Amino acid sequence: MSKADPIRPTDDEARALARDLLSGATFAALGVIDPDTGAPSVSRIAMATAPDGRPLSLISDLSAHARALKANPSASLLVGEPADRGDPLTHPRLTLQVTARETRHGEPGHAELSAHYLSQRPKAKLYAGFADFFLVTFDIEAGFLNGGFGRAFRLTAQDILG
User: Fold this and answer.
1) Is 81 helix (H, G, I), strand (E, B) or coil?
2) What's the distance, CA 73 to chain centroid?
3) How far is the C-alpha of 61 from the C-alpha of 99, rounded, in Å?
4) What angle do CA 6, 11, 13 make, to 5 degrees?
5) Residue 158: other Cβ atoms inside 10 A
6) With contact defined as beta carbons under 8 Å apart, do 59 and 124 qualify?
7) Hey, where are the domains in the chain?
8) How far apart are CA 132 and CA 50, in angstroms?
9) Rounded (10°) CA dihedral 129, 161, 69, 120
10) Mean pLDDT estimate for the chain
11) Which end of the chain is more exposed for a tag (fewer CB within 10 A), N or C?
12) SS3 at position 2
């Protein structure tokens, strides 16, 4: 007996929902692999979007996830939070498979990228200039959208970024 594929064909509505979830996210769950144990680890990070729409964050060298990303830049991000009411599994969420790319103080493009990040997350001005902080742009490899019960889609970077 064959089982039907529960993943729907990607359509414009799914693309728009994924873009809305990403552009509206102020934080994300970041999944990395601990370099010491090989075990998965998840952290909450502040998030914005780069000028081209890719996920962007400001991370400290003091964090465990910074060390993990240096050892292995492959990671995952989860955006989309449930509302205050109802079953949390019926609310849309987007999982992204990503590769982290860091940009440090003094490197080409840092000043512009930092200004862009701070325009979205102005409270980060308090610590963005500290030497241990650097920007991370996440290159999207693939996306998985759960738009609510029975609404699952596989997405490409092109589907998400346009």
Assistant:
1) coil
2) 13
3) 17
4) 105
5) 9
6) no
7) 9-81+90-161
8) 20
9) 20
10) 94
11) N
12) coil
In b/e form, how buried is each residue of 112-151, taking b as 16+ CB within 10 angstroms? ebbebbeeebeebeeebeeeebbbbbbebeebbbbbeeeb
Indicate the length of the chain as a whole number. Answer: 162
User: What local confidence, expressed as pLDDT, does residue 149 receive?
Assistant: 78
Burial bucket for residue 102 (CB in 10 Å: 0-12, 13-18, 19+): middle
- Token digits for 46? 């502040």
For the chain, residues with pLDDT lower than 50 are 1
Cα gap 27→67, rounded to integer Å: 19
CATH class of 9-81+90-161: mainly beta
Q: How crowded is residue 77: how many other Cβ atoms within 10 Å of its Cβ?
A: 23
- What residues form DSSP beta bridges with 135? 58, 103
Q: Residue 138: what pLDDT? A: 98
Which residue, 13, 71, 7, is CA-closest to 38? 71
**pLDDT tens sequence across 17-51:** 999 999 999 999 999 999 999 999 999 999 999 99
Which pair of tokens denotes residue 14? 């799914």
pLDDT at 28: 98
